[in-house]
Amino acid sequence: MINIRFFAILRERLGVDSLAYEYSDEKTVDDIKQNIIARGEPWTLLAEQDVLIALNQTLTSASARVNDGDEIAFFPPVTGG
Hints:
alpha+beta, globular, about 25% strand, five-stranded mixed beta sheet
């Protein structure tokens, strides 16, 4: 099982803060992301280019390898002021 978390505007627009994802044979964050996007609206929000990804609380790329028990987080870019 992989715990997937959504933050800020993604959480608001998706209407959920987390998702328990049954791990099977996906190898990368992008594999999982594409499977979620394939569910259709509103999950296609994850296809936006500016969505950031963290794996086990560390910023990463979509090509990062995933293991059962990992946590993936999706969030919009953070701006300072």
